[in-house]
What we know:
single chain; mainly alpha; 11 helices; flat
Amino acid sequence: MSRLRRIPIDVWFEPIIILVIGIGYIIWYRSTTFTATEKASLDWANLQNTILQHIKLTVVATVIVVVVAIPLGIALTRPTLKWLEPIAVNIANIGQAAPAVGLLVLFTFWLGTGFRTAIVGLVVYAILPILQNTIVGLQQVDQRTIEASRGIGFSGGRTLFQVELPLAVPVILNGVRTALVILVGTATLSTFIGATSLGTLITTGVTLFLPKLLISGAILVGLLALTIDWLGRLVELAATPRGIS
């Protein structure tokens, strides 16, 4: 019982919300009459492909952002490149400040339509949370801890990987979770530039005035965002060293 009390509330409460919404949607789906267009769009074969494409967009964009933002954030906390930090953060902030649809349309003029353009737009849009959290996470490591590590003979690289990064993990992973949720929501807009996503259901529902299709798209995006956020929380909890969770 005491062990259960130590589990953060969001770890067990979020899946309950996911289950309630999911079961509610299934009950509504089974008891609702759909038009031919709605049936075709919500047919499991089509829906499965749409969901998988949406997940693919999110995962690929996240992997690229992580590979770019975390090493860049680490580099910007090193003394030789620290002066570049405000410049890099401000450049990354441009992607967040710009409207997501406008950003995707601008990249369409350069790269054309489709999956690749959507990935580039999503990467630019989601890089700030991970970059900023990597910098903040490393900066908040106690300088005395770093000096003690160097004092017992650790090199700069060993101190980074065995002391600084483990202590910064909670903050960095929180940034990854934030970026994932942003990407799940923003990926719906990729339908405007020819990339398949759950946004296709939403735009079709709006264009053809099919509210049931619109509701289905919105609920599925919400469920996907909540599920990914919860899985990210589990990873964050598992990766956080004991004593700093």
